[in-house]
């Protein structure tokens, strides 16, 4: 995968797996029944596992440090910090909803 200008089969396969995950997630969100939704989420979990294995193979020996430093807060950027906090809270609510947890 060294030449970024030419897509290799690995990159194409990764892209196809990402598209599969997006399609399954979208389908699960609009499923007509709870049974169908659960089936689609099970398929999504399997697709995510396949994507993970492909990405690990594509990464090769490259390893990400266990403790990545988080983003530094921007001094005097209160509006941005509020937007980030709001986005994180929204994401947490969405995740909790689909995990069956009560909203915080």
Overall description:
The chain is mainly α and 104 residues long. The protein folds into two domains: 1-59; 76-104. It contains three helices and no strands. It has helices at residues 9-29, 34-59, 78-99. The longest helix is centred in the middle third of the chain and has 26 residues, at 34-59. The protein is flat, with a radius of gyration of 18 Å. The N and C termini lie far apart (43 Å). The model has no long low-confidence stretch (mean pLDDT 78).
Q: What is the secondary structure topology, with strand pairs?
A:
Layout: H1 9-29, H2 34-59, H3 78-99
Helix pairs in contact: 1-2
Head-to-tail CA distance between termini:
43 Å
Name the helix and strand elements from N-terminus to C-terminus, one letter apiece: HHH
Range of strand content: under 5%
| Relative helix content | 55-70%
Number of domains: 2
- Helix run count: 3
Radius of gyration: 18 Å
Counted beta strands: 0
Residue-averaged pLDDT, rounded?
Answer: 78
- Unreliable spans are none
Instruction: Assign the structural class, choosing from mainly alpha, mainly beta, alpha/beta, alpha+beta, or little secondary structure.
Output: mainly alpha
Quick structural gist:
The chain has 104 residues and is mainly α. The chain is built from three helices and no strands. The chain is flat.
Task: Provide tags for this entry.
104 residues, mainly alpha, 2 domains, 3 helices
């Amino acid at each position: 995968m060294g030449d970024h200008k030419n897509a290799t089969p690995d990159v194409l396969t990764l892209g196809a797996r990402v598209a599969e995950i997006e399609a399954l997630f979208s389908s699960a969100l609009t499923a007509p029944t709870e049974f169908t939704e659960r089936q689609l989420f099970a398929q999504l979990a399997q697709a995510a596992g396949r994507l993970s294995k492909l990405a690990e193979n594509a990464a090769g020996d490259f390893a990400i440090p266990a403790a990545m430093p988080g983003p530094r807060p921007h001094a005097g950027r209160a509006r941005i910090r509020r937007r980030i906090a709001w986005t994180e809270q929204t994401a947490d609510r969405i995740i909790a909803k689909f995990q069956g947890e009560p909203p915080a």
